[in-house]
Amino acid sequence: MIAKWDIQPIPEPKNRDRHKLLVKGDMTDIFFIVKKLGKICSRPEKSKGDFNFIIYLSKMDMEIMTKLKQVTGELSKIAKKDASQSSEEKTKPIEKSVAAEQAMMDQSVAKEAQVKAEKAKEEEAKAAKAKEEQAQAEKAKEEEAKAAKVKEEQAQAEKAKEEEAKVAKAKEEEAKAAKVKEEQAQAEKAKKEQAAKEEEAKVAKAKEEQAQAAKVKEEQAQAEKEKEQQASSPSSSTRMRGMSIPSRKNKQQLGKPEEKTPAQESSGEAEKAESGRRKKKLLQTRWSMELPMIPTYNFENFIAGSHNRFAHAAAMAVIDNPGTMYNPLLIFGIPGTGKTHFTYSIAYGLANSLGQRNIFVTDGIKLSRGLDLAIRDGLTNKLEEIFKQAKALVIDDVHLLMLAEGNKKFLSKLLNDFMSKDKQIVVTSLFPPKALGGLEDQLGFQLTQGWMVDLKIPNAEKYKAIVTKMMDSVDIKLDEESINKFFLKNFMALGDVVETFEQVKKLEKLIASMDNRMSHAQLLQMLLGDSSEDSVLLEDDINKAEAFKLKTKDNWFKWGIFYSKGCQNEAKWIIYSLYEKSKELGINVEWDQVFIEEYNSDESYGVPFKIADVASEKKANGIIIMGPQSTSVLGAQEQEFKHLSSKILTSFFIKSSWIKANKIKDSASYVKILMDLI
């Protein structure tokens, strides 16, 4: 029950309309108020004194005050109703007891007293009935009031929609008018530029004609002068005898470059070495810390539902008022919940409100690796200038930050500076907030101090709608049966759905070049295969794989393969099968196998980083990873293992492909590897 409440203004430089709501009541009532008032509310905070809770409101006007009064009124009605019901339940046993005592007394008195008691009992029944009818009437009135209130709210909602529609229409008309005006201005400008060009062409032509006339005149004068000189000059033989002829020494010097002294040669070599070092340093510092924006990843292509409703509301609040309420905003969820699309959508929204130059979008690996290179090359001042100008920082996969003694101080200062200056920070994580405690301790920054929202896997209906929208964006045609078979049946991760559609389009071009027309469903069958699992190698399979030797020709494609502990035969089979599949498809691609390495599938941490380090050292540009056996430690975390490995290798500009341990004899696995790597 709400005992009392009060509103007090607490303006800020950036928000003069900020207020605080002081409430004395139960936690359930506080949650009811936050739910009703929506995104203008902060998280409730406990308080001491006359009020036990404080809620900060980002704005306050008559509409919000009216809504607040309605909410507190509803809570008061609910409390009164509960109290009334409790009172009636307590009085019923008492009334029964009095009736029992009256009955005992009636037995001991005369018949006349009994008649009076029965009459009194009838009157009492009539009174109870009247009381019940009155309660029903009051309940009916209350129901009517609720219905009227609902009707009023619906009317207000419809009115608000109409107003929004009017505003949207006005904006659209205004945009159209502005566009027409801009087109007219551009046409006028183009017309003026064309006229200016024509005028310039006329002037240039006139100048050219004048120059030609002058040249003709000059040539005529020169001819006249030469005639006069011929008449007065000596013969050609006389002129030849008067010319100076260079000596042999001079002839040699004319055809030979000037010789340098040893000191000059040493100085030149030093200059070349210094120039080489400068070029190398320049190449090394060109590590891109920013992620490129993906145009299709925005809220216009985003499908909201129960799986992301709270996250969507928080994102809208951040875009509307960056750096004020939900800061930092931490978004977490398992692979396949749409974190990447969601993150880029927020970045696009912030770019619209703050300007694209004021948004810095990166991920954990790029940020930490780029900072390491900047520290090594003495370019941290340049980074500080970049971040000083930024008004929002978006870090995807913050759990992949590779912290070291050299970069921790810079990162800690960077994040704390953003917070102290009310600059918005948005981070995403594969892991829940409680798993980020160690990272927070090393950073000296609380990623969980702001607002935390999770993204869940959508229900079947929403999932199908998302997949259908992805299909439309890349012009892929599938019937409902194919959608259910390939995607909905196993709820393929949304990021994998995007990659699968890209591979379908790539395979479609390849098949078309072979004069073989196939439907998109048939192409998906080639890529994804069936659900059967077969990983048992026969003796004949092992012998074929062992006998196969890939010829190395110093090709540009340099691939390597990582296999889980104890599966060397399976790794050799993968290489053999991949080569056979490329021949079958007519893919004329040659590659060098630069390494075949084992990883420990019972090691719970660090394997993705080791894979990336080895691939980078071997200068590979394509990696095949055989997944762990289901009985191993990493087998229970295969989806996370795959996600982290792919992210880290991508940051090293190395392509990668994943093959499950139980799919090494599935033909579709090798089609997918080829589409991933070539």
CATH topology of the largest domain: Rossmann fold
Strand line-up in the sheet with most strands = 6-7-8-5-9
Would you report the number of β strands? 13
Helix content: 55-70%
Please indicate the percent range of residues in DSSP E strands (runs of 2 or more): 5-15%
How would you explain this protein's 3D organization?
- The chain is of the alpha/beta class and 678 residues long.
- The chain folds into five domains: 1-83, Alpha-Beta Plaits; 153-230; 299-454, P-loop containing nucleotide triphosphate hydrolases (Rossmann fold); 460-527; 531-677, Rossmann fold (3-Layer(aba) Sandwich), CATH 3.40.50.2300.
- It contains 21 helices and 13 strands.
- The strands form three sheets. A five-stranded parallel sheet has the order 6-7-8-5-9, sandwiched between helices.
- Strand 3 and strand 4 form a beta hairpin.
- Helix 1 (27-37) crosses helix 2, helix 13 packs parallel to helix 15 and helix 17 (539-547) crosses helix 18 (568-585).
- The two termini are 66 Å apart.
- Mean pLDDT is 79; it is low at 93-102, 227-267 and 278-286.
Question: How are the elements arranged and paired?
Answer:
Blueprint: E1 4-9, E2 19-24, H1 27-37, E3 45-46, E4 53-57, H2 62-108, H3 111-232, H4 236-242, H5 248-255, H6 262-284, H7 309-320, E5 329-332, H8 339-354, E6 359-363, H9 364-376, H10 380-389, E7 392-396, H11 405-420, E8 424-429, H12 437-443, E9 451-454, H13 460-474, H14 480-488, H15 494-513, H16 520-528, H17 539-547, E10 557-564, H18 568-585, E11 591-599, H19 607-617, E12 622-626, H20 638-651, E13 655-659, H21 667-677
Parallel strand pairs: 5-8, 5-9, 6-7, 7-8, 10-11, 10-12, 12-13
Antiparallel strand pairs: 1-2, 2-4, 3-4
